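<context>
A single protein, sequence plus fold
<entry> Chain with its tokenised backbone below
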Amino acid sequence: MFKNTKSSYGIVAIALHWLMAAMVIGLFGLGLYMVELTYYDSWYKGSLDLHKSVGITLVALLIFRFAWRALGTQPEPLSNSSPVLNKVAHTAHLFLYVLLCIIVISGYLISTADGRSIEVFTLFSIPAIDFSVANQADIAGKIHYYVACSLIGLVVLHALGALKHHFIDKDKTLIRMIKPQKDDL
């Protein structure tokens, strides 16, 4: 089952979810590691190039995820779930997407502040826009950092919510994001 149904996420949505989650956590960890490096550290440039390349890959997956979501069916909430909690979960997902978009834009503005393009795994380049403001890299860097910390905080709450559904509520919320389910709500 590749596509979503009214009662289940499909393999594509599940794979996107977990791949993007791993990338976000990995990029956050790499970002924290990178800011501690000095120009003379052996992995200074390599970590920066990897962070940018994986970040651009995350952008591509995010765009694909938006398209997949817009063009496909979304599973309905479980029949035993609270409408208030469903609204909270929906709002949290919107915030996750908004924060991801802000991180992407701020990362691009940091990387292209000096007018250079972004090399993606040495396969192709993303050009810089012909626009900059004073201290662009510093301003965008602060935004990037604080929004990334906010995103990770929200990811932790998201994961705790999924675990609560699984272990306390004993419902299929987490299971639906691990493997496709039969058509029963």
In short: Strands lie at 118-120, 124-126. Residues 14 and 177 are 6 Å apart (CA to CA).
